[in-house]
Amino acid sequence: MKSYLYPRLNLDISFADLAFGLFPWLSKSSVQNSSIIQDFSRNHKQVLVTLSVRTAFDLWLQALNLPKGTEVLMSAINIRDMQEIVKNHGLIPVPVDINLDTLAPDIELLKSLISPKSRVFVIAHLFGSIIDLEPIVEICQKHQILLVEDCAQAFCGTSYCGASSADVSLFSFGPIKSSTALGGAIACIQDSMIAEKMVTLAAEYPCRSELWFCQRVFKYWGLKVLSIPQVYVFLIGVKPRYAQNRTRCKEM
What we know:
Low-confidence stretches: 247-252
CATH topology of the domain at 41-207: Aspartate Aminotransferase, domain 2
Number of strands: 7
Helix content: 40-55%
Order of helices and strands: HHHEHEHEHEHEEEHHH
Mean pLDDT: 84
Radius of gyration: 22 Å
Shape: globular
Number of helices: 10
């Protein structure tokens, strides 16, 4: 029986979707921002489409304009860039350890970390899980802390478009995410005035061109081909042979 070696990460996108992505003019006629907004506005929030979750988070912090030194509580597990964005705004990230059984923040620890400078809590739904936010919402409301839910790893279709009680819900469609679009994010914002400021700020950002996106499609098309088990096992086998040949050349 023949066996194959599978890569640890597979892109959640088909070759048909990649082919569709090479025709941005066709995409424009098929998928409009209005349909995305309609799908994600069920909690009566303002919906903004951005390049990434990091872009949306940065826009939100700009619009919020918190005083320097304000503390931002954050789930202890998240990508480094989210913490760096907080620091770039002159704010102080405060990590909150999570319970490894539930992937939710430790409630008692969260309570102990809250100070008069705490204004925001960024909670990440990790590894496809959706955390019960009720106890966290209660704590945030009691201390007048804004709640941001990072749903970058928790997109499961429009069955969950963010908690109605969260001030901001962020969804990612980057290359390694479920149902990837090779980029893009959706931000659902509770405060309409903050959302309007974000739109104004976003208008000043440079736009990615269709050529940029086509190059991105070709890049991930190549990675998708390399992740085919028959191709991947050949690729893995090439490296040891190449290393052996180099060793022999050095010995000669």
